[in-house]
Amino acid sequence: MYKQLIRPVLFKFDPEKIHHFTFSCLRIGQNLPFVKGIIKSSFEVSHPALEREVFGLKFKNPVGLAAGFDKDAKLYKELSALGFGFIEIGTLTPKPQPGNPKKRLFRLRADQAIINRMGFNNGGVEEAVERLKKNSDVLIGGNIGKNKVTPNEEAVEDYKICFDALFDYVDYFVVNVSSPNTPNLRALQDKEPLTLLLNTLMEKNALKEAPKPILLKIAPDLTDDQLLDIIDIVKETKIAGVIATNTTIARDGLTSDESLIKETGGLSGKPLTARSTEVIKFLAEKSNKAFPIIGVGGIHTAEDALEKLDAGADLVQLYTGFIYEGPKLIKDINKAIIARS
């Protein structure tokens, strides 16, 4: 029903405006009597074969929602009812920021893709914390970044602020240094600044009574040598794992209108399927599966998800595939995993 009836209507409108409209519909709809129960029974799948224990956390199923969809932790409960095993909120920054000028979100329908240059638009970490205080049963990842105005030399302080603010309210952390939409952010992926950043957070983490898993989200545009550096950094800093991958700045093989292809920003969706799987496979093989990997990028079918799991991912996340395929995709993936068990 989603692809035949709902999506054609939604795709007639501006992507960012319809995102906020959809949020409002989900919130209002699930507050109506019996609606949340109907939604959960329609999409949730429970089975022992779906349960995972990864970096010390227990997941009811391995299909999560990637960061960027619920940046400000406004809808994590309602989204969880669609069958997700976990929800990653953010990217959050210490101070609120509007992000980049609009228009900044574009659908490439012919390629089943999206280009975004949102620029870490969010209401600030403290605002999200107030919403997360109401959480009781949703497994939450906290994706953290730096404010646009913060120079890279001072970026560590921004990540520390977010880490401290979120610590009591998320189950794991994700350090985002791989978004292409904040100027110079990707420079923090270089070995020296990245090692410093992760070691600093791990030192703070070690002081906690119950440390939380810290993961690193990486770009799909890294070379093999840079990926080998990532493996070394994970080993050296002893972080919990890696999320592979973020959006790409590449535009290879696209068939959409030239004006869309020329838009700056990060590309997500179907064109990223093969590359993100390659990165997962490379990391898993070269590290001898030394750390957990969350696979994300171009998952539009159950088969796409299974390929990432077979390549070495322990969990998967959806974003663009969820927009194009609808919530049934979550159920399809979970059912395919059960069928193979």
Automatic annotation (TrEMBL):
Cofactors named for this entry: FMN
Record membrane topology: Peripheral membrane protein
Annotated binding of substrate, by residue: 71, 116-120, 176, 181, 246-247
InterPro entries tied to this protein: Aldolase_TIM, DHO_dehydrogenase, Dihydroorotate_DH_1_2, Dihydroorotate_DH_2, Dihydroorotate_DH_cat, Dihydroorotate_DH_CS
Catalytic activity reported: (S)-dihydroorotate + a quinone = orotate + a quinol
A UniProt-annotated Pfam family: DHO_dh
Active-site residues, record numbering mapped to chain: 179
Pathway membership: Pyrimidine metabolism; UMP biosynthesis via de novo pathway; orotate from (S)-dihydroorotate (quinone route): step 1/1
Keywords assigned by UniProt, alphabetized: Cell membrane, Flavoprotein, FMN, Membrane, Oxidoreductase, Pyrimidine biosynthesis
Record: residues binding FMN: 67-71, 91, 143, 176, 217, 245, 269, 298, 319-320
Entry's cofactor comment: Binds 1 FMN per subunit.
Keyword Flavoprotein: yes
Function (record text): Catalyzes the conversion of dihydroorotate to orotate with quinone as electron acceptor.
HAMAP family assigned to the protein according to its UniProt record, in alphabetical order: DHO_dh_type2 (MF_00225)
Family assignment from sequence similarity: Belongs to the dihydroorotate dehydrogenase family. Type 2 subfamily.
Protein's recorded name: Dihydroorotate dehydrogenase (quinone)
